[in-house]
Amino acid sequence: MKFTEREMTEAVDAVGQKVFAASRPLKRNHDEAWQALSKIEKYHHRAAAGEMILTALIALPERPTVGSPPQFTPEEYAEAATAGTRQLMDHRRPGAWDGLSSRKQKALVKATAMMVEIGVLAMPIRQDPDAFIVPDHL
User: Fold this and answer.
1) In 3-state terms, what secondary structure has residue 137?
2) Containing domain of residue 70, as a range?
3) Domains contained in the chain, number
4) Residues sharing a CB contact under 8 Å with residue 134, sequence separation 6 or more, in sequence order
5) Does 90 fall in a domain?
6) Exposure winner among 27, 105, 116, 135, fewest CB in 10 A?
7) How far apart are CA 10 and CA 21, in angstroms?
8) Global pTM?
9) pLDDT in tens, 96-107
């Protein structure tokens, strides 16, 4: 699916925050801790999140929606996660995906699909590009 740069940025940021929170399961106040991170520390979490979800995001089926975030079924998330994860792993090391056991593949697909869904839900509401009005002062 085609997403705008802002939509993908919001998705990666939301997943980056989830990855950060998951790395601190026994701590409280994840939002305050996230805000306290330096820019480079936030970047590292966002980079990991982007690597995890971007290939799966673009593998989602096209859903032109206006006024709401796109809706996908769990099967569509799983298919996109499978395609994205396979592509990422085989890009790093050819045959890596096939070298995993089916149990590990399922676990990886399930985690990636969950993160992609979190990213899609964090995206801003889509605007109708045909109804976009530029003010006269611009």
Assistant:
1) coil
2) 5-24+39-124
3) 1
4) none
5) yes
6) 135
7) 17
8) 0.83
9) 989 999 999 999
